[in-house]
């Protein structure tokens, strides 16, 4: 039995036959690959007709197959074979892509189109803005920033204030440090104000107490009026 792809028997002649009819040479291949048989076999095997190989030595038996069950039997017997899938190696493509990621093969001679056509600025802007907004949402969900700072940074990001994520993170740290410093100053001022108020109240109490004492002493030293 012959085999596909270079495994055919040497005794089987698969070369085209030449017939001279009325002075014309007609090239005819052996009628071993009937369209019906290949169509049925391809349907049963789940492939295309190009992937079906029919045994040239069993032409008659294959031609008599008129049902899918018979085709399955011929496939099981090896008279009909589904050719293997042609391998297309991507090793060279992977190697080239790895080199391009390192910057190779990207010189001026390899470029087609303008810089904006090769990488549109609109796409770069959308990618950068989405990165910044994802970071803001993540920080707000984690409680690292409050909703007020989130709202402020959201609009600053839209206004092209931050060129990359690192700049946004640094701005967040500075903003939080500044807010903490302002809160500390506010607390110190409140404490100083409360201390001053308490001291003023104590002084007022002392003054009032002294005034009350002086008023009481004056009342004691003042003689009572004589009775008539």
Automatic annotation (TrEMBL):
<dbReference type="GO" id="GO:0022625">
    <property type="term" value="C:cytosolic large ribosomal subunit"/>
</dbReference>
<dbReference type="InterPro" id="IPR035970">
    <property type="entry name" value="60S_ribosomal_eL19_sf"/>
</dbReference>
<dbReference type="InterPro" id="IPR057259">
    <property type="entry name" value="Ribosomal_L19e"/>
</dbReference>
<dbReference type="GO" id="GO:0003723">
    <property type="term" value="F:RNA binding"/>
</dbReference>
<dbReference type="InterPro" id="IPR015972">
    <property type="entry name" value="Ribosomal_eL19_dom1"/>
</dbReference>
<dbReference type="InterPro" id="IPR033935">
    <property type="entry name" value="Ribosomal_eL19_euk"/>
</dbReference>
<comment type="similarity">
    <text>Belongs to the eukaryotic ribosomal protein eL19 family.</text>
</comment>
<feature type="region of interest" description="Disordered">
    <location>
        <begin position="179"/>
        <end position="228"/>
    </location>
</feature>
<protein>
    <submittedName>
        <fullName>60S ribosomal protein L19B</fullName>
    </submittedName>
</protein>
<feature type="domain" description="Large ribosomal subunit protein eL19">
    <location>
        <begin position="38"/>
        <end position="176"/>
    </location>
</feature>
<feature type="region of interest" description="Disordered">
    <location>
        <begin position="1"/>
        <end position="41"/>
    </location>
</feature>
<keyword id="KW-0687">Ribonucleoprotein</keyword>
<feature type="compositionally biased region" description="Basic and acidic residues">
    <location>
        <begin position="179"/>
        <end position="208"/>
    </location>
</feature>
<dbReference type="GO" id="GO:0006412">
    <property type="term" value="P:translation"/>
</dbReference>
<dbReference type="GO" id="GO:0003735">
    <property type="term" value="F:structural constituent of ribosome"/>
</dbReference>
<dbReference type="InterPro" id="IPR057260">
    <property type="entry name" value="Ribosomal_L19e_C"/>
</dbReference>
<keyword id="KW-0689">Ribosomal protein</keyword>
<dbReference type="InterPro" id="IPR000196">
    <property type="entry name" value="Ribosomal_eL19_dom"/>
</dbReference>
<dbReference type="Pfam" id="PF25476">
    <property type="entry name" value="Ribosomal_L19e_C"/>
</dbReference>
<dbReference type="Pfam" id="PF01280">
    <property type="entry name" value="Ribosomal_L19e"/>
</dbReference>
<dbReference type="InterPro" id="IPR039547">
    <property type="entry name" value="Ribosomal_eL19"/>
</dbReference>
